[in-house]
Amino acid sequence: MNQIVADIGALETRIAVLENEVVKELHFERKSSTSIVNNIYCGTIINIVKGIGTIFVDIGVEKNVFLHETELKTPIARLNKGDKLLVQIKKDALSEKGAKATTFLSLPGKYVIFLPEEKQIGISSRITNQKDRENLEAMGKEIIEGTSHGVVMRTEALHQSSSRIRQEYQNLTTIWTSITLENASKGDLLFQEEALLDRLIRDVMNKDTKEFVINDSLEAKRLRDICQKRNPDDCIKIIECDPDENLFERYHIESQWKQAMQNKVSLESGGSIVINTTEALTVIDVNTGKNIGSNRFEDTVLQINLEAAVEIARQLRLRDVGGIIVIDFIDMKKKHYQHKLLSLLKNELKKDRQKTVVAGITKLGLVEMTRRKTREKVDQMFMEACDACSGTGFYPSVYQDLYILEKKLRLLVKHKDIEQIKVCIHPQTWQKIQKEGLDLKVITDKYNHKAMFIQDSLLTTRGFKVELYKKER
User: Where are the bilayer-spanning segments (predicted)?
Assistant: First the structure.
């Protein structure tokens, strides 16, 4: 049974999508910073950088949004600074980068995506049956006949009547007629994407979803109204819980969410996968771990790799990992084993609502793939770089600490009025010094300083503090 569980807090909303009690997706929306993906703005061109084929547009937010020339309906050579554009946000601002936008606009519905002024018909790539694709294409042709617009038939269109789909298309057409550059000013929000709860009803809830659990009475009532308007035939059950109840604890989501904060994930077979993210890409390593197998080594490796492929597809959804992804599966020499692994990975990725592309296996045996990125990864939303290690995950060695101490003492040589120096050191650093068998007096003697060394647990675990005692005059 599939469920959607929404925990409404004072500062943020946390939502989990469960399939047979296993968390497949996590979504978060903070009241202080909501996503602007899919919003349509009136923007003004601020800068045109033809060398990299990019324009920067001011839409009234902190950072200008950028559009590559492939996202422009009008050739970049015909654009000028100060021109007004209708732009739609494709990706939220991440780190130092501004939001990414496009001029190829679209309005999403549950069954179709409306493509204004683009005469084309698209079919969801998740629909693989040729007969189904042909039927939906024929329906799409009927819907857009006599218009200058296009349509993408979504997966949920398979389960709905043509009249309901046509009605949704007409509703989206009405919305489009209200979106115009005429009389619009820079920064005007001309179309706003639905709130997180509403988007999940539109994009995630389907015939397999049996429950929507929520701990807010007002939102529960609103969700019932939305479901009734969109599809009164849906048998989804809205379960309203006590607002004081932590639903993430009740449905055992908390433990699975915490796992998304860790870089190592254990597999039932005894193997593991390790997920590391850099600025450029995400690297996933598959290890045998404790699983040495009772069969032939190649068969054991295949078993671990297949299990890892299923878990990797789940973790990518759970963590919302996007961009370039490189997977280092355990090496397999047999080609048909490699094909079996790739086939399983691709099938598991079809369950993902975000677009994924598997490029194949490189000469080094690495699987390269991409996944569409629209927001920060889950761990980046809830983790901050450590002040002590600057986010590297490593402390300076004790030798590096003492090198910095020696530099400070060297600078104090010219101060003739210093009678004594007190060096405060954290107990953990002190233990490392003792373990290495180092004599700090060697440093102070070299520079003719009288020094005393004190352990101070109030300091951070790295570094030290130097206090000076001057001679009395």
Answer: none
